[in-house]
């Protein structure tokens, strides 16, 4: 789910180099660099949680398998025809591109939101690793419905893990990034092996046996909502909404030689968000047949969704290591990126201390299992908040001239706060978030309408505000 590099360290790929200028042609990269990066990026610690969580929603075989297939295809198309198209045309970081449209002060607000959300996501990664570290200590695993820490052992493990991860992210990120490059194939292998072992434990000998594991679906677990095809399709499309239609990956694709390199995202998506999610779901299907899980269900409770024990039951110590590595190698760059976002707000503070600040927030978030146990909901909210900002960039690029407005308006008029952007985001977010809450509409259902609404409102408000100034 989070981003880290395979061929380049994060300073180059994510914005530390050429952050306020166009990337020169001599620094452009071919498809191999991006294929490796995305393959590693999307086989992360969160995959161990997301797969099982789908089963808690009572999803059917068709809805899960075909919904993920088509939803992930839409995500790839979004990267290819929106993010990669704009990224290779201008070759700016997301932040510099936004600054040209929004102004410096408004981009600061975006950086704060982005940094805080990254911290919460990193907290979920720490939670994932903690479920594996806790196995030798006989730690009580968090339940699906848990919100608060469940004991001193859990608190101690999360605090120690968070401290170590934060310090390494602050002091030795390059070493961790290089180590992650070597670890990512191991993590992918662990997912595949877990899936194969789970199929054996479930006595699956044919495709029909595999299909019948979910069949027509079931009632959702206590506290969960029922997922249909559209829930799976839209959730998987917008799981990375901040990165593709939200344009965060402009910072990555500005190094691509041509827009067709956007197709390399399929390598990561279909390894991590298809194979890995289904493999993790199979692990949970095995666990659901256990006496412990059946006891939970008999008492009207949702069985635990803890990645560490699930992987350990399938492949032993290798499973524990895979879960720790998956959480560790994705929490580190997530914390680092959150630190970069905070540093843009307080530029005089050193990278070390803003990263420690980000790590502290992530560690506190990791204490609360809800961020991981409610990951489907959190990821939907994450995309819903940040994706509309990408609509500003897309509409500014594709429709500004036709609508009679000036693109890159803040840069050309030297303003620091473009109110057209602020009001477009606030109105679109407010309207559709209210609809989601008032009528109990699944948040991923309104992400695309919010994105489109934000784009059109940006055009409308820009026409109004730009009449007051001449460029």
Automatic annotation (TrEMBL):
Protein name: Purine-cytosine permease-like protein
InterPro entries: CodB
Keyword Transmembrane among UniProt keywords: yes
Membrane-spanning ranges: 61-82, 115-139, 151-170, 182-202, 227-247, 268-290, 310-331, 352-372, 378-395, 416-435, 441-461
Keywords: Membrane, Transmembrane, Transmembrane helix
Record carries keyword Coiled coil: no
């Amino acid at each position: 789910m989070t981003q880290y590099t395979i061929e380049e360290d994060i300073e180059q790929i994510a914005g530390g180099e050429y952050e306020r200028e166009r990337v020169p042609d001599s620094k452009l990269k071919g498809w191999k660099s991006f294929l490796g990066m995305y393959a590693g990026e999307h086989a992360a610690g969160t995959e161990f949680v997301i797969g099982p969580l789908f089963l808690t929603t009572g999803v059917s075989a068709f809805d899960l398998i075909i919904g993920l297939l088509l939803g992930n295809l839409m995500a790839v198309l979004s990267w290819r025809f929106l993010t990669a198209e704009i990224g290779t045309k201008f070759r700016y970081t997301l932040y510099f591109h936004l600054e040209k449209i929004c102004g410096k002060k408004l981009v600061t607000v975006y950086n704060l939101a982005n940094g805080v959300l990254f911290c919460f996501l990193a907290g979920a990664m720490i939670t994932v690793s903690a479920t594996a570290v806790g196995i030798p200590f006989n730690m009580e695993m968090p339940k699906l419905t848990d919100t608060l820490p469940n004991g001193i052992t859990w608190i101690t493990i999360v605090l120690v893990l968070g401290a170590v991860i934060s310090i390494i992210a602050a002091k030795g990120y390059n070493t961790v990034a290089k180590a992650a490059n070597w670890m990512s194939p191991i993590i992918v292998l662990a997912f595949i092996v877990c899936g194969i072992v789970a199929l054996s434990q479930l006595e699956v000998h044919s495709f029909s046996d595999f299909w019948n594991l979910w069949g027509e679906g079931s009632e959702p677990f206590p506290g969960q909502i029922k997922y249909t095809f559209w829930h799976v399709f839209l959730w998987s499309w917008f799981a990375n909404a901040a990165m593709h239609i939200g344009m965060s990956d402009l910072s990555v694709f500005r190094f691509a030689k041509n827009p067709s390199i956007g197709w390399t995202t399929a390598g990561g998506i279909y390894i991590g968000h298809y194979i890995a999610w289904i493999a993790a779901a199979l692990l949970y299907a095995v666990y659901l047949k256990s006496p412990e899980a059946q006891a939970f269900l008999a008492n009207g409770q949702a069985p635990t969704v803890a990645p560490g024990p699930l992987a350990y039951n399938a492949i032993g110590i290798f499973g524990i290591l895979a879960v720790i590595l998956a959480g560790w190698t994705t929490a580190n760059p997530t914390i680092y990126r959150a630190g970069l976002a905070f540093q843009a707000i307080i530029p005089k503070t050193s990278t070390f201390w803003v990263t420690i600040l980000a790590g502290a927030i992530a560690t506190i978030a990791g204490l609360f299992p809800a961020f991981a146990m409610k990951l489907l909901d959190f990821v939907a909210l994450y995309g819903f908040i940040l994706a509309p900002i990408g609509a500003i960039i897309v509409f500014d690029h594709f429709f500004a001239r036709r609508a009679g407005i000036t693109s890159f308006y803040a840069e050309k008029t030297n303003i620091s706060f473009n109110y057209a952007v602020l009001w477009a985001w606030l109105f679109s977010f407010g309207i559709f978030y209210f609809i989601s809450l008032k009528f109990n509409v699944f948040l991923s259902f309104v992400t695309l309408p919010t994105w489109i609404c934000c784009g059109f409102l940006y055009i409308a408000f820009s026409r109004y505000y730009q009449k007051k100034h001449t460029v």
